[in-house]
Structure prediction request, 129 residues.
Amino acid sequence: MTDHHVRPLEPETDLPALVGLLTAIRQAEGNPTPATADELRPALAQPRFRRWVATEPGGDSLVGLAVLFHQTPDRCYGDIRVHPAWRRRGVGRVLSDALAAGAAEPGTRYLAIDVAADNQEAVRFLLSQ
Prediction:
């Protein structure tokens, strides 16, 4: 059982913390370019996207992000990002549950999540879901 709280992303109030979360993830993936609020604002305004964040147990710090894009009435695309310090601690699982529930609400039949073939940790995680 995990104590991570998952809730819908609140674009304006969560933006500074989201910038920090995505910057940490980029750096862990070898991308030194920090995320910026100016870069994220247009993406957060896109229709047909739903977003959830996971917070640390008992706190407000963002430790993960899930994004669901409704491509067609039958198909959604999902993406899960977890802060490097919080991986393998149940964050991805609670976010994947949010994605699955969000995709099922309107009756979507398929949820696609892409993973780079060389990211074996992510492949193992998705296969366990």
Remarks:
- The chain has a mean pLDDT of 88.
- Strands lie at 5-8, 49-55, 62-72, 75-82, 110-113.
